UniProtKB/TrEMBL annotation:
Residues 1-494 form the Lipoxygenase domain. GO terms for biological process: lipid oxidation. Belongs to the lipoxygenase family. PROSITE patterns: LIPOXYGENASE_1, LIPOXYGENASE_2, LIPOXYGENASE_3. It holds the Pfam family Lipoxygenase. Binds 1 Fe cation per subunit. This is Lipoxygenase domain-containing protein. It comes from Sparus aurata (Gilthead sea bream).
Length: 494
């Protein structure tokens, strides 16, 4: 997994990267208060989820606009280990998979990276984590409806494919196992690895290789605020041997490093660049995909800003090639962040201004927008536990017709596990009072007129985007606000 800062304790981090007093007090206080606050305050969104979590349309919606919009892809051929036939999903012969695939209406979510991992033991009980395959169909009403779920990767008699036409609890249990796999995949891959551990590498490489007078330092340092300390805390309290993940998550404990290693080897440059990622997943024209719509606009805004600033300092590609500090920054990221894996597609050096601009855009996007997209909604979607169980304590049904409300309740985590999980999500979704929003640069590192003008224009674009998203909110049952520019933090700080 990516290398991390060598600091034994929080206090051994350099003073300039520490939390402010305000942030320390709030954070440490709220960790203890988390539980009671969860009980005292009843936020609105988990109530919405409580009402709708069983609905197929809401289940489908979350693959696009929930906390993990990173997995769904358009499906043009069925994987050979997912033998769904037309007769199973189009009961009245009204269409066929082939035809619907041709129209671009079939989507797949595959948790294969979770297959066969060693799961946790919680309260003395073995926990279960599946590696499901989910097939979805976009209806003429533009809803994304799950049409088939297989919970384990290898087709077998004791691994039935579930359908919406099965008994209420067979189908619901299948969806619950998917939501639990999603909780684990989201936390370790989308959130921890990509939106915390990578930003730490960007940060350490910057501090180590780039002097304060360098334009790259001035451009990036605001996007590294609090990242080293929050990651230190995550290592200390969340993913440590006796941390929160060991207490609440199916992926916690011994298996976690193996899971992270698998995610690590699947991490590519294109999957970190939203435009390439959306294209690769074939999602350019899926309706009601707000993560994509807002994310692409934010990427474009950030790109224009980064391009303006860097083109002002680097007039030619030769200047990029000759900047040894810049080159050391990217080569350290390749080595320590991607463990020198060439197949990741991460550049090992920069040969042009354009290449540097794209990479720096990805860094700012990942540390701000992408982290917000996978972080801010955690309590909204996970606050009602059945919608996102961090672990399950019974295996899934091996044949149909054996489930009931009672088996569902026995499968859910214990009450104390649930409460601990809710408190953690609550804490991680809370905005702190010294939050700095995307594009706000209170430290004024740049003194020249051109970069200052570019900052102003960047902020004007963000303001327009904010108004546009506000307008959209009026027409939505469930507003998507995680990428509203004033809700996006400048750095990975929580
Ligand atoms: C959590 O709940 C389980 C099941 O009710 C119980 O066995 C266990 O002792 C509890 N753990 C703690 C720390 O209270
Ligand atoms: Fe986070």
């Amino acid at each position: 997994i990516p290398h991390c800062i060598d600091a034994e304790e929080e206090s051994s981090l350099p003073p300039e990267v520490h939390f402010s007093c305000t942030k320390s007090i709030e954070f440490n206080g709220s960790q203890k208060q988390g539980l009671s606050e969860v009980v005292l305050q009843v936020p609105l969104f988990p109530e919405y989820v409580q009402e709708h979590w069983k609905e197929d349309a809401f289940f489908g919606y979350q693959f696009l606009n929930g906390v993990n919009p990173m997995l769904i892809r358009r499906c043009t051929t069925l994987p050979s280990n997912f033998p769904v036939t037309d007769g199973m999903v189009f009961l009245r012969g009204q269409s066929s998979l082939k035809e619907e695939m041709k129209k671009g209406n079939i989507f797949l979510v595959d948790y294969k990276l979770l297959d066969g991992v060693k799961t946790n033991t919680i309260n003395g009980k073995k926990q279960y984590l599946m590696a499901p395959l989910v097939l979805l169909h976009k209806t003429p009403e533009d809803e994304l409806m799950p049409i088939a779920i297989q919970l384990k990767q290898t087709p077998a008699d004791d691994n039935p494919i579930f359908f919406p036409t099965d008994s209420e609890y067979d189908w619901l249990m299948a969806k619950i196992f998917v939501r639990s796999a999603d909780w684990n995949m989201h936390q370790l891959n989308a959130h921890l690895l990509r939106a915390h551990l990578l930003p730490e590498v960007f940060t350490v490489s910057l501090l180590r290789n780039v002097p304060m007078v360098h334009p790259l330092y001035k451009l990036l340092i605001p996007h590294t605020r609090y990242t080293l300390q929050i990651n230190h805390m995550a290592r200390d309290r969340l993913i440590s041997e006796d941390g929160v993940f060991k207490e609440i998550a199916a992926c916690g404990g011994e298996g976690m490093i193996e899971i992270l290693r698998r995610f690590m080897s699947s991490m590519t440059y294109s999957s970190l660049c939203i435009k390439d990622d959306i294209a690769k997943r074939g999602l350019e024209d899926v309706p009601n995909f707000y993560y994509r719509d807002d994310g692409l606009r934010l990427w474009k805004s950030i790109h224009r800003f980064v391009q303006g600033v860097l083109r002002y300092y680097y007039k030619t590609d030769a200047e990029v090639k000759e900047d040894s500090e810049l080159q050391k920054w990217i080569s350290d990221i390749f080595v320590h962040g991607f463990l020198s894996r060439e197949s990741s597609g991460i550049p090992q050096s920069f040969t042009s201004v354009a290449e540097m601009v794209k990479f720096v855009t990805m860094v700012i996007f990942t540390c701000s927008a992408q982290h917000a997209a996978v972080n801010s909604g955690q309590y909204d979607y996970g606050g009602w536990m059945p919608n996102a169980p961090s672990s399950l304590q019974l295996p899934p049904p091996t044949k149909k017709g054996t489930t009931s409300e009672a088996t569902m309740l026995e499968t859910f985590p214990d009450v104390n596990t649930t409460a601990n999980g809710m408190a953690a999500l609550w804490l991680l979704s809370k905005q702190s009072s010294d939050f700095v929003r995307l594009g706000d640069y209170p430290e004024e590192h740049f003194t020249e007129e051109t970069p200052r003008k570019l900052i102003k224009e960047f902020n004007e674009r963000l303001e327009r985007l904010k108004m546009r998203i506000k307008d959209r909110e009026k027409n939505l049952k469930v507003p998507y606000t995680y990428l509203k520019p004033d809700m996006v933090e400048n750095s990975v700080a929580i």
